[in-house]
Write a structure and sequence with these properties.
Elements: H1 11-22, E1 30-31, H2 39-46, E2 53-61, E3 64-71, H3 78-85, E4 91-92, H4 95-102, E5 120-123, E6 132-135, E7 141-145, H5 147-154, E8 157-159
Parallel strand pairs: 2-6, 3-5, 5-8
Antiparallel strand pairs: 1-7, 2-3, 2-4, 6-7
C-alpha cells in the first residue's frame, strides 16, 4: 500500500492530492487494490477500526449541498444534526447531486477537491482517533489525516452527528 506516484492517480485523486499539498498536509493519496466504497471495506483494506474512516456524505439542506464528515462507526441522525447546526431539514443527496456538488462519485467523495467549498460538519467522534482515513476522490483512493486537519481543510464546524 505504498503511496502512488502522482502521475498514476486518477484525475479526481490528483485534484485532492493538489489541495492537500497546497494546504501543507503531509499525508499522501494512496491507491488501494481493493474497493473502499464503504467504511467497512475501507477499514478492512487499511487494517484499522471502522470508526477511523471519515465518510464524506453529501446532504441537501436549505436548497444547497452540504458536507457531513462522519465516523464510519455510526449513522447521521439528520433531524438532530439539522437542529444542532441550525439548518433546515437534511436529506441525502442523489448520486447526480453528489457528483454535481463535488465532482466525485458516491463511494469515493473526498472532504476536499470540490468545485466550491461546501458548508461542512466534522463529526465530533472523529476526534477519538489519532489517525483517520478519508476517500480521495474515487472508491480506490484514500489519504491519512486527522480531525484537526479535516477542520482546517474544510473550514467545518465540529458537532456530534448521532442522536
Amino acid at each position: 500500500m505504498a503511496p502512488q506516484e502522482g502521475t498514476s492517480l486518477p484525475a479526481r485523486s490528483k485534484e485532492v492530492a493538489r489541495v492537500l499539498a497546497e494546504a501543507g498536509i503531509e499525508g499522501r493519496v494512496r491507491e488501494l487494490a481493493a474497493s473502499a466504497r464503504t467504511a467497512a471495506e475501507a477499514a478492512e483494506a487499511l487494517g484499522c477500526e471502522v470508526g477511523a474512516i471519515a465518510n464524506s456524505l453529501v446532504f441537501i439542506s436549505d436548497d444547497e449541498p452540504v458536507l457531513v464528515l462522519t465516523s464510519g462507526r455510526h449513522k447521521v441522525d439528520t433531524t438532530a444534526l439539522a437542529d444542532r447546526w441550525g439548518r433546515g431539514k437534511l436529506r441525502r443527496a442523489t448520486p447526480e447531486q453528489v457528483r454535481e456538488a463535488t465532482g466525485q462519485a458516491i463511494g469515493g467523495v473526498a472532504p476536499v477537491g470540490h468545485p466550491r467549498t461546501l458548508p461542512t460538519v466534522v463529526d465530533a467522534a472523529l476526534g477519538d482517533y489519532p489517525r483517520l482515513w478519508a476517500a480521495a476522490g474515487t472508491p480506490h483512493t484514500v489519504f491519512p489525516t486527522t480531525a484537526g486537519e479535516l477542520l482546517r481543510l474544510t473550514g467545518g464546524l465540529v458537532l456530534p452527528v448521532g442522536p
